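Re: the 367-residue chain
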Amino acid sequence: MPKPKGRKIDPTPIAADIGVVDLIDRYFTAYNSARLKEACQLLARRVFQPGVTVGMSLSGAMTPAGFGMSVLAPLMRAGFIDYLISTGANLYHDLHYGLGMNLFSSTPFLDDVELRKTDTIRIYDIIFDYDVLLDTDAFVRQVIKTEPFQKRMGTAEFHALLGQSILEVEKQRGATAHCLLSTAYECGVPVFTSSPGDSSIGMNVAAVALEGSELVIDPSIDVNDTASIAYFARENGIDSQPGQSAAIMIGGGSPKNFLLQTQPQIHEVLKLEERGHDYFVQITDARPDTGGLSGAIPSEAVSWGKVDPDALADTVVCYTDSTIALPLIGAYVLNQTPARSLKRLNDSRKARLADLREQYLKAQGDA
């Protein structure tokens, strides 16, 4: 029986001037550091290539810590995120930065009763004034009352309109860096929220409905829109090779499921070709043995048809804090991988949904 193969660990003393790529490639040797290295290398060498359609899910309070502007926006501009599924809270707190509001790094060991007395909000070790919420709410309500919002729409269209509005504010402020939603608007990247009522943005949508607003967020549009992106990913190949689909999950929760359910929607519900995502990369701190989706591993996703069984070698799960992993991943891939052309999936939404409908009705007729 052959011996198991491995790579010799060479514990060379670390240099004072080491860069992030050498640090990860040479010194992330075992345990979750090795999984993070595998994720970085898989993303840089195979996932962020022209023929791959890349979806990312985002949960956890990432944008309050600034990662929307500092990491995700540069990845979008480089063409590495083709569509995003986020919690509404991440998109709401992203707006603070677009509006030029201040959030502060502090300590988690503050007296919350005293914070309440001084109208100070705390997200673990991030603090900001209560007026930040009130002023952001006022901006959202003002924008969504305008004529373009007075109709039924999915969250991708809704966020594109919101991103356009916040971009105008950033330009008026003379901002040199743009927030996540305005960047997505500029790059044509669809941004979805799997639970549109579960955030302050959704709360403000509900408030203006009491005033007679005709805005209706329709999640069914999003279900078909995301499924159409995954379904037609095979048509985005290069050099006569079929395109591929990648799922990158920062955290778990509802956004992770919404990204992965695109495949069961295609084959289980719409009765179209079964395939599954070709790449699966997840950063999580959730365990799989509790039965929650946040900790579910790629092989379990295979049983649902969410991941291509032949692609298990191209899956990585790293158990670590997303606030540690995301900046390292961003720095690594931006250093190692040339920027891709933007797919601008927002621009092709109507045509893509019409094509999916045609394929679905054809499959129903053939059944």
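The mean pLDDT is 91.
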